[in-house]
Design a protein that fits this description.
Elements: E1 4-7, E2 18-23, E3 26-33, E4 36-42, E5 45-51, E6 59-62, E7 69-73, E8 76-83, E9 91-99, E10 109-112, E11 117-121, E12 124-129, E13 136-142, E14 147-152, E15 158-163, E16 168-174, E17 184-190, E18 195-200, E19 214-218, E20 222-227, E21 238-244, H1 245-248, H2 259-269, E22 275-280, H3 282-294, H4 300-313, E23 318-324, E24 328-334, E25 347-355, E26 371-377, E27 386-392, E28 396-402, H5 404-407, E29 418-423, E30 430-435, E31 441-446, E32 451-459, E33 462-471, E34 479-483, E35 488-492, E36 496-501, E37 508-514, E38 521-526, E39 536-543, E40 547-554, E41 557-558, E42 561-562, E43 570-577, E44 584-589, E45 611-615, E46 619-628, E47 633-643, E48 651-654, E49 659-663, E50 669-674, E51 679-685, E52 694-699, E53 705-710, E54 714-720, E55 732-739, E56 748-753, E57 759-763, E58 766-770, H6 796-804, H7 812-820, H8 824-839, H9 855-859, H10 864-873, H11 893-903, H12 913-930, H13 938-955, H14 970-977, H15 982-992, H16 999-1005, H17 1007-1010, H18 1014-1029, H19 1041-1046, H20 1050-1058, H21 1066-1073, H22 1080-1095, ...
Antiparallel strand pairs: 1-58, 2-3, 3-4, 4-5, 6-7, 7-8, 8-9, 10-11, 11-12, 12-13, 14-15, 15-16, 16-17, 18-19, 19-20, 20-21, 22-23, 23-24, 24-25, 26-27, 27-28, 28-29, 30-31, 31-32, 32-33, 34-35, 35-36, 36-37, 38-39, 39-40, 40-43, 41-42, 44-45, 45-46, 46-47, 48-49, 49-50, 50-51, 52-53, 53-54, ...
């Protein structure tokens, strides 16, 4: 399949707009289009595009001897010669040019003669020498009328020329060669009507001596053949024969004629239809016959047809082929053309009135129905032998390919010609593309006001575009919309809109509507409708003042019933005002990718966006809309608002999948945003010379986004990548580069995606259609070759789905997230299953993505053990191969070692090499940590697993966190901080360094951040001091000065200096440290020394002297700002003054927390708030915007751009949130300030993150099992106990060592009367929640502001849930929660705990949880 098709531009409607010739062994085709010369080597092989700076080009001619091209523009002729052919880089460069005198006018015709001579036809006929240093004229003859066409014969002795509407053909005979004194004699060939075209017979070789034969075509539909009759008449031609073209295709049809033939006859009865003719010279005929014989089949019919063809070829005839407008053809053979003894049998019939595909789709006015043919022989293997270029004057060139035995078969045939491609396009540079909602048709516009409608078509094995209509508007088109699969278009002008019927070759205006609106129209868009069946459309225009107009459009045929003539097809439907005060900088329609153009019946923030806008300050806003038929109005809703901080954005493009790409004011920086989560997913700064010109969205059938970034001469395709929070990798990456410069030097004007994933690129006046297949991998696609085994990865849809689709359960990312979720048992089960599969793996057998583990085991943690046990007991199932291998039937170090060995031998499907190494590292870590499972809690296990993984990754040179060499992230530090097994973790970290840990190792492990016991902190700090002193043979006291002075052990440091005789600073330092630094004078001296050390950039030693001066704040400031070591500053403050000191509080509030806010680091923020004893804020920092938690004026009022990065929304935060909310009463106070809607959206947002990571099963498990706690103030007054949460009817499970869960006992809830938190009472803990207390119950729609139907309500308007109920269980259609009925004073109970009949409380969720709206195909 061809991976690229080309529409090189609209050919000029002139006789010499197209030429072809064979130079050496290379067949060249060239034509002029606007100001460009296009040189091609095949149907989709553009060799070069040459742009002319002057006026339009009108004619082109090729010299087959030198390979040069001569082109005409106005009164100028330019010559381009070949270069670099031997080096394999063929191109044509400018060589010379000349201009005609003013009296000669413009050039109408050019033709090459001998020895680089060019014949030019204008108001005169002239011959020019172009190869000498100075181009000059050899001969010039003024004429009475301007030359229309002048052509040299192939022996360069005769020239035939005609004028416009000229019935006399002039034949010029050259009388002299080889001198500057060139002379021509001439004679006339009279015709009864005007002559339209000329053709000289082509010899087999240029050196061959044959008589010159001239074919002339006249308006009277007679083809005349002229040849020398007498031997002495070399320059005098006589009429040899004449062929009646009208009579060659008779209109008297037999009874068996087809319906199309009868229509042609009826058309002919109204007037004779024109005939079209071309001549196949003997040379072309012979070559095409040989090609047909070489590729012939063995069937009896083919053998017989070839026999007749070879008999015909033996006569060396010329073939005259005649067509009419309906494509019916006849073929005549011309035998012994030019012979002195002319016989009637010299002209004979070959094919008579048979149908062909040649004139299919021929429409237009009489002037545009003219067609010119250029036949030639092609020896390429894919060719049938005969190639026919048909130049239609309506702006197309068809490339036909045929086998001569099929083309000239006298019997009726269904197919004679094979259309290989069509060359068309614009005359000037393309500026914009617009498409229908499904991507099946596009509208292209150029800078001179050309507008063409193109529809997708299949030409043999390639996708191409077929021009359907030309839209001619006398008014400037500001914006346009294409609809109804390209059959209708609407254009907006300064004061009116126009509706066009584009199903005709020339679009017809069928409606118009005037309008007035305030502001500049920024966009015109088609609104999605409620269904696809309706033939009504609604188009809206929105201005910079956020005001607009809507029109209703009715298709000319609605449900196959024509509209009454009195009913307009377009009418103004409504006006609207979006109520925005700030004028918007840019506003445009959302790209409709991956969805049908239908709407749901509700308008909420989960509705599909139709418009995106951005202000000059960078405030991004998306809008949804729907047509309110009851009120004849357009309803709008602002769905999402994101402050991007990007001022004066130059380009924005949004997709209906909730992605927005923004280019900054400098046009070389790109950012990609997810509007529904207000996240920055990607940032890229390109070079200053790389200007972004265009952005376009598409998606795969499974809704994976693709962004095309257009530069001046290339297009870069970016794919979504899975979110990777553990490595911190990019979430987008380029995977394909399309370079255009080698074909066209003009900058790219626009690009757009087609329905099938093809990318249309407009550069200059040319259109390139790049399919989604990758034939030649580039620097971006080559690394993707190893992603999927048994796949060539030649389809961009397959590549993108693989880069961003769901991962198999054995993928490292899935295993890591399971570890964070506390599902280590499941991880071990997965590794055991993977080991079983790999031991029996064969590359021809697919590897099950779930490893034969039931889905229920992933989404039901409580029943996981029972589900897997039940599966294992079935015969012939999960562990059938392990009956004789007990040591490998359960997870442990033997199985981990066996797995690691298999990883080195087997390339695992769906994993890259680095991912497979990471999987080996995880397997080893899980095996090591499983031995300590009984002695550490879950948080300690999380920390230890990733600490081991970090060490292994560093040893194996796997960069776990690219660009971050400081070790573990704050996520792992927070796990260890909340662990109750810290003494064990300390021992393991110390053993890793074999008792010689330095500060770099402590910082990598985060030891002094997560260690809570202050005495242990000081003990570990003193160990560090000793290790730093002893790390070198010299034992330099400077290395440990900061450590001992932080411990306030100056005397120990003094003793070390006493024995450091080798140090040149020993004497001074020992004497200085001997002073009493409790005295102010010595403190001042210590500070002076500290500042002197700062000047020498000895920052650590300066910080130590600040401690000597008892200036802790100055010391930590130097460490934080100059050394840029946050952990060291915090550790020094903790060791020096403890966790309750003022300096540590200042450091956390003024330095650490602002950094967390600025970077959007919620892990750092929650740790800092916990250290500040603000545990309520520690919980809120996980969910709420960080900058809203700090009222300090020194804190940024809003986060900077980096804080929007997707890495700030780690899905593991929900695990920490659940952990902290159950810890203490203070955290419950923080929970009270988190609204139910905020928590609801936090859960949904986390589920979406899991989905973007490819961990769909974890997303499903989250929404199924999440439990909302009550937000009532009464919970703070209730007794808190250390218990386990036990769902009603479920068996109690013993908590792990150190796992502390504080909640309210079920019995306590049941003892509290009616069971509700409010005065009216409510449902009991064991049943449905939200039971109302008679009339006292108040229904408050908690999610109304978010476009959802109201959910569960209580007197406080809070969502109340139970341990047995989950988010997934609450999905339903009820608008309000309902509980058991009760009296006026007390409410009914819920379920078994309540008094009356209980109904389930249902929360109406958004349209989706972690999935985006349903998308069945890339463009609907």
């Amino acid at each position: 399949m061809r991976t690229r098709t080309v529409l090189p531009g609209r050919p000029q409607a002139t006789l010499q707009a197209v030429c072809t010739g064979e130079w050496g062994r290379l067949r060249l085709v060239a034509y002029v289009s606007g100001k460009t010369l296009v040189i091609l080597g095949g149907v989709d092989e553009i060799l070069q595009t040459i742009y002319h700076d002057g006026g339009d080009l009108t004619a082109v001619a090729i010299d087959e001897q030198s390979g040069k091209f001569a082109v005409a523009s106005g009164n100028q002729v330019l010559v381009y010669g070949p270069s670099g052919y031997d080096e394999g880089s063929l191109s044509w460069i400018f060589q010379s040019s000349f201009k005609l005198d003013t009296e000669d006018g413009n050039v109408n015709s050019i033709c090459w003669g001998s020895d680089d001579e060019v014949l030019v036809g204008s108001n005169s006929l002239s011959l020019w020498e172009t190869c000498s240093e100075k181009v000059h004229v050899l001969w010039r003859k003024p004429l009475a009328s301007a030359v229309k066409l002048a052509v040299f014969s192939y022996n360069d002795t005769l020239v035939s020329s005609i004028g416009f509407n000229d019935r006399l053909v002039k034949v010029w005979e050259r009388l002299s060669f080889g001198s500057d004194d060139v002379q021509f004699g001439f004679s006339y060939l009279p015709h009864p009507r005007a002559v339209t075209n000329l053709h000289w017979r082509r010899p087999f070789h240029r050196e061959e001596t044959i008589d010159s034969v001239l074919y002339t075509l006249c308006v009277d539909s007679i083809l005349r053949i002229w040849a020398p009759v007498h031997s002495q008449d070399q320059g005098v031609l006589h009429l040899w024969s004449a062929i009646d073209l009208q009579g060659s295709i008779p209109m008297a049809l037999p009874e068996s004629s087809s319906e199309s033939d009868r229509k042609a006859a009826d058309k002919h009865a109204k007037g004779p239809s024109p005939r079209h003719v071309f001549v196949i010279d003997s040379k072309v005929f012979t070559g095409a016959t040989e090609a047909a014989v070489r590729t012939a089949g063995t069937s009896e019919k083919q053998v017989e047809t070839l026999r007749k063809l070879t008999e015909l070829a033996a006569r060396n005839p010329e073939i005259c082929v005649i067509f009419d407008d309906e494509g019916r053809m006849s073929a005549l053979g011309l035998d012994n053309v030019g012979s002195k003894n002319h016989k009637p049998t010299n002209v004979f019939n070959i094919v008579t009135t048979q149908r062909s595909e040649l004139m299919a789709g021929m429409e237009g006015a009489d002037g545009e129905r003219f067609v010119q043919f250029l036949p030639y022989y092609s020896g390429k293997q894919e060719s049938g032998g005969l190639v026919l270029l048909a130049h239609f004057y309506d702006g197309r060139i068809h490339w036909f390919d045929a086998r001569l035995d099929e083309f000239l078969d006298p019997a009726p045939r269904k197919h004679r010609l094979n259309l290989r491609g069509t060359w068309s396009g614009h005359s000037t540079a393309i500026t914009a593309f617009r498409r229908t909602k499904n991507g099946k048709a596009i509208l292209s516009s150029s800078d001179n006001g050309e507008h063409y409608v193109w529809v997708q078509s299949k030409t043999n094995d390639a996708t191409s575009l077929k021009r359907q209509s030309e839209l001619l508007s006398s008014d400037e088109v500001l914006h346009a919309v294409l609809m109804d699969t390209g059959k209708l278009a609407i254009t907006i002008h300064n004061s009116h809109v126009t509706l066009w019927d584009t199903s005709f070759q020339a679009a017809r205006e069928i409606g118009r509507s005037d309008f007035t609106v305030e502001g500049k129209v920024l966009c015109l868009l088609l609104l999605p409708e409620y269904d696809d069946v309706s033939r009504e459309f609604h188009v809206v225009a929105v201005t910079s003042k956020m005001k607009g107009v809507a029109w209703e459009i009715k298709s000319p045929t609605i449900a196959h019933n024509p509209l009454p003539d009195t009913e307009p097809l377009i009418r103004q439907y409504a006006t609207f005002d979006l109520g925005e005060m700030e004028e918007h900088h840019k506003l445009l329609a959302v790209d409709p990718v991956g969805w049908h153009a239908t709407l749901s019946g509700t308008l909420d923030r989960f509705s599909r966006e139709v418009v995106i806008s951005i202000t000059a300050s960078g405030l991004l806003r998306s809008w949804s809309a729907r047509v309110a038929t009851a009120t004849s109005d357009i309803q709008w809703l602002s769905t999402f608002t994101v402050d991007t901080g990007i001022a004066s954005a130059s380009i924005i493009r949004a997709s209906s999948l909730g992605k927005v790409a923004i280019v900054g004011a400098d046009r070389n920086d790109l950012s990609i945003w997810a509007t529904r989560s207000a996240q920055l997913e990607y940032q890229m700064q390109f070079g200053k010379d790389e200007v972004i010109r265009d952005l376009d969205w598409a998606c795969t059938p499974d809704s994976q986004s693709i962004l095309a970034v257009g530069f001046s001469h290339r297009v870069l395709l970016l794919s979504q990548l899975r979110y990777d929070y553990l490595q911190g990798g990019a979430s987008w990456a380029p995977f394909r580069e399309i370079k255009i410069r080698e074909y066209n030097p003009h900058p790219i004007g626009d690009s757009i995606w087609l329905e099938d994933g093809g990318l249309v690129i407009g550069t200059g006046n040319q259109i390139y259609i790049i399919t989604r297949k990758i034939e030649h991998p580039d620097e971006f696609s080559k690394p993707l070759k190893g992603i999927a085994h048994k796949s060539s990865n030649t389809d961009i849809f397959d590549i993108v789905s693989h880069l961003n689709g769901p991962v198999p359960v054995y993928h490292p990312q899935f295993l890591q997230q399971c570890i964070l979720a506390g599902r280590t048992k499941l991880v071990e089960r997965i590794l055991v299953g993977l080991h079983k599969e790999l031991r029996n793996y064969h590359e021809e057998l697919p590897l099950d993505n779930f490893l034969d583990i039931p889905i229920e085991a992933f989404i039901d943690p409580d029943g996981e053990e029972a589900i897997l046990q039940a599966r294992n007991t079935n015969a012939g199932t999960y562990f059938e191969n392990y009956a004789h291998e007990d040591e490998l039937s359960t997870f442990g170090e033997p199985l981990a070692a066996s797995l690691s060995e298999l990883f080195t031998k087997i390339p695992i499907p769906h994993l890259t090499g680095s991912e497979q190494m990471m999987l080996a590292s995880i397997t080893e870590c899980v095996a090591q940590v499983s031995k300590q499972r009984r002695s550490i809690d879950e948080n300690g296990e999380r920390y230890l697993l990733f600490f081991k993984h970090h060490l292994l990754g560093r040893d194996r040179r796997i960069r776990v966190q690219p660009g971050n060499e400081k070790g573990l992230s704050w996520r792992e530090i927070v796990w260890a901080f909340h662990s109750v097994s810290q003494e064990i973790l300390v021992d393991m970290v110390g053993n890793t360094h074999k008792g010689k840990m330095l500060w770099s190792g402590a910082r990598d492990s985060g030891l002094f951040m997560w260690l809570r016991d202050l005495q242990s902190v000081r003990n570990q700090w003193e160990i560090l001091a000793r290790n730093h002193y002893a790390k070198s043979e010299d034992k330099n006291p400077i290395d440990c000065s900061l450590h001992y002075l932080a411990l306030r052990k100056k005397n120990v440091l003094l003793g070390l200096w006493r024995i450091a005789h080798w140090n040149r600073e020993q004497s001074f330092t020992h004497k200085f440290l001997s002073n009493n630094f409790s005295e102010p004078r010595w403190r001042t001296a210590a500070k002076k020394n500290a500042f002197a050390l700062l000047g020498k950039q000895r920052y650590e030693y300066a910080a130590a002297f600040f401690l000597l001066a008892d200036s802790l704040q100055d010391s930590v400031s130097v460490i934080f700002s100059q050394m840029e070591d946050m952990q060291l500053a915090i550790a020094v403050a903790r060791v020096y003054e403890g966790d309750d000191g003022p300096v540590l509080k200042w450091l956390l509030e003024e330095k650490v927390v602002p950094v967390a806010v600025r970077e959007g680091n919620r892990w750092l923020a929650t740790w800092a708030f916990w250290m500040l004893k603000r545990r309520d804020l520690a919980v809120r920092a996980i969910v709420e915007p960080l900058h809203t938690l700090l009222p300090s004026p020194n804190t940024p009022s809003s986060p900077i751009l980096e804080s929007h990065l997707y890495l700030a929304s780690d899905p593991a935060l929900i695990i920490l949130y659940k952990l902290l909310r159950d810890k203490t009463t203070q955290t419950l106070r923080g929970l009270r300030k988190i609204s139910p809607v905020t928590e609801f959206e936090f859960v949904l947002h986390t589920a979406r993150l899991y989905d973007r990571m490819g961990c769909d099963l974890l997303a499903l498990e989250l929404v199924k099992n999440w439990v909302f706690l009550s937000k009532s103030e009464d919970v703070l007054a209730m007794p808190l106990r250390k218990v386990d949460i036990v769902a009603p009817g479920a068996r109690a499970k013993r908590g792990r060592r150190g796992s502390v869960t504080i909640t309210d006992e079920l019995q306590e809830l049941q003892r509290r009367g009616s069971g509700g938190w409010g005065a009216g009472g409510g449902g009991g803990f064991g049943g449905s929640v939200g039971g109302g207390g008679g009339e006292s119950s108040v229904k408050t729609p908690v999610a109304e502001d978010f476009g959802m139907r109201p959910g569960v309500t209580t007197e406080h308007g809070a969502i109340v849930n139970t341990a047995a109920s989950s988010l997934l269980d609450k999905w339903g259609d009820d608008a309000y929660g309902q509980g058991g009925s009760g009296g006026e004073g007390g409410g009914g109970g819920g379920g078994e705990a309540g008094g009356g009949e209980s109904k389930r409380v249902l929360v109406k969720p958004p349209a989706s949880v972690f999935e985006e709206p349903d998308m069945s195909w890339a463009f609907g």
